[in-house]
């Protein structure tokens, strides 16, 4: 069984001729020992969104570099490590993002524009983490739920992943408009516009996930895309480029531009909360870079691997180990989103303290939790001034959080 994360594309061809040659060339037949199979992917025959597809050999001859690379140690490591990691991310991500959803939904005051974006970011992360237990089970014992659940889980996974990336980008743009283009934002930052933007983000995430829904099938006790032969050489490269550009490069360029403009504006702003706002801004950018850059660098290297620029067994094994580690770092980001984007704010901290005091009074170490009761909201004009200065994301209550 090949062991890799579900974000990495698996491919199987419907053409018997291709599969026959692959079995001959790479020893993937039913009688081949597991140790001779090439590692990669969540199950047999899989390779990742970042894993190279074996080329079809048309001539038969002895080539030492074409011998299968024994990666049984990587397979054993992944089979133990990945399920534990998926379950940990599921538990932490579920708890944090459910708390964000409840805090926004149960808040009595009128919802702000950024509250809507934060709510949708939390929902995206929930879709992402909810799929992880299924992939953990698939890693251990294969896919046993059938084709329809395979399509649904794969689609939810990609919708959650890209939706989360897109809403992080939208939040950055929204803050840029509220702080750097404050006058313009009075007309552009409306609930109608936020609703249209939210619908557009979800539509884009759905569009990106359509190929995975169409091609995903249960095959040989695994959930993988089954493709026609014409797409076999295009699909892995397309997946890598899609993940590198749509899932990282474009969002990171927008985020950097927006937050650089925010910091520049705050440096010229005379306010006591300026230092904290700048620190929180830097935290958002630095954490995003630290968690997602290594993984996307490895994805690019895997694209080069598809063109056989890495043929040494040691190089391949090092690349696979590095991919395991960078994937764990990247996927953990959805657990930090509630801390970075929500609970850094006063309103969400108040809600968290009230919940802790209600269900776990022993956890309230900072005095009576009822002192965090929400105060009456300030006027709209006052809150807009506060938001422009302190990176407020709630236009009604003037609280400070990123």
From TrEMBL:
Entry keyword annotation includes Transmembrane: yes
Transmembrane domains' residue ranges: 80-105, 117-136, 156-173, 194-214, 234-259, 280-301, 321-344
Single biological process term from Gene Ontology: immune response
Membrane topology according to the record: Multi-pass membrane protein
Keyword Nucleotidyltransferase among record annotations: no
G-protein coupled receptors family 1 profile domain location: 96-341
InterPro entries: CCR1-9-like, Chemokine_rcpt, CXCR4/ACKR2, GPCR_Rhodpsn, GPCR_Rhodpsn_7TM
A GO molecular-function annotation: C-C chemokine binding
Keywords per UniProt: Cell membrane, Disulfide bond, Endosome, G-protein coupled receptor, Glycoprotein, Membrane, Receptor, Transducer, Transmembrane, Transmembrane helix
GO CC annotation: early endosome; external side of plasma membrane
Subcellular location(s) per record: Cell membrane; Early endosome
Gene3D superfamilies in UniProt: Rhodopsin 7-helix transmembrane proteins
PANTHER family linked: CELL ADHESION MOLECULE (PTHR10489), CX3C CHEMOKINE RECEPTOR 1 (PTHR10489:SF955)
Entry's family note: Belongs to the G-protein coupled receptor 1 family.
Protein name: C-X3-C motif chemokine receptor 1
Lineage summary: Eukaryota, Metazoa, Chordata, Craniata, Vertebrata
């Amino acid at each position: 069984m090949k062991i890799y994360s579900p974000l990495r594309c698996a491919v199987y061809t419907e053409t018997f001729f291709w599969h026959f040659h692959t079995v001959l060339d790479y020893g993937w037949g039913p009688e081949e020992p597991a140790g001779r199979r090439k590692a990669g992917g969540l199950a047999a025959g899989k390779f990742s969104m970042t894993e190279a597809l074996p080329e079809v050999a048309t001539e038969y001859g002895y080539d030492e570099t074409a011998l299968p690379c024994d990666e049984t140690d990587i397979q054993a490591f992944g089979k133990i490590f990945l399920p534990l990691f998926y379950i940990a991310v599921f538990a932490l991500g579920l708890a944090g993002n459910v708390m964000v959803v409840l805090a926004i939904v149960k808040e009595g005051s009128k919802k702000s524009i950024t509250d809507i974006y934060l709510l949708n970011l939390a929902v995206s992360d929930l879709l992402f983490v909810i799929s992880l237990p299924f992939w953990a089970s698939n890693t251990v014992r294969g896919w046993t739920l059938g084709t329809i659940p395979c399509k649904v889980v794969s689609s939810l996974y990609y919708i959650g992943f890209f939706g989360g990336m897109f809403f992080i980008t939208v939040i950055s743009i929204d803050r840029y408009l509220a702080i750097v283009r404050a006058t313009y934002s009075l007309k552009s930052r409306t609930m109608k516009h936020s609703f249209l933007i939210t619908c557009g983000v979800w539509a884009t995430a759905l569009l990106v996930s359509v190929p995975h829904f169409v091609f995903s099938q249960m095959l040989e006790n695994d959930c993988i895309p089954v493709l026609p032969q014409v797409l076999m050489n295009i699909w892995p490269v397309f997946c890598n480029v899609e993940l590198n550009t749509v899932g990282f490069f474009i969002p990171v360029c927008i985020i950097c531009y927006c937050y650089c403009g925010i910091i520049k504006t705050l440096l010229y702003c005379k306010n006591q909360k300026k230092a904290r706002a700048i620190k929180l801004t830097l935290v958002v950018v630095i954490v995003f870079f630290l968690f997602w850059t290594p993984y996307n660098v490895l994805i690019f290297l895997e694209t080069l691997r598809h063109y056989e620029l890495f043929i040494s067994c040691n190089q391949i094994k090092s690349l696979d180990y590095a991919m395991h580690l960078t994937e764990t770092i990247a996927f953990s980001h959805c657990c930090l989103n509630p801390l970075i984007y929500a609970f850094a704010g006063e309103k969400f901290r108040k809600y968290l303290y009230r919940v802790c005091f209600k269900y776990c009074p022993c956890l309230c170490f900072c005095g009576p939790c009822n002192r965090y009761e929400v105060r009456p909201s300030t006027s709209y004009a006052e809150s807009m001034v506060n938001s422009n200065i302190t990176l407020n994301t709630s236009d009604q209550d003037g609280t400070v959080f990123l």
